[in-house]
Design a protein that fits this description.
Layout: E1 2-9, H1 15-29, E2 35-42, E3 49-56, H2 59-65, H3 69-78, E4 87-92
Antiparallel strand pairs: 1-3, 1-4, 2-3
Helix pairs in contact: 1-3
Length: 99
Amino acid sequence: MIVNIVHVLVKPEFINPFLEATKKNHENSIKEPGNFRFDILQDAQNPCKFVLYEAYASEEAVAAHKEKAHYFEWRDTVTPWMAKDREAIKHILLFPAAH
């Protein structure tokens, strides 16, 4: 399983539109084959900070996600609202062990 943790810092004036666009991306992403999780987290101390926790069955599923129209729409919509470039960090799930 491949897990990407994406850190996003949004300009304060764009928090609500970011949430709307990100919810739409989430709703489509969880329907993708090979997607196990697509969680959206907001920092409790700084409402401008978000984490996207994305878990996929394989690298192929991750690559397929990045070819979906809803991903392109999300990326192109929210990028101007970010205070800095988003940072995606790839992880490999160790526990619980895959069966």
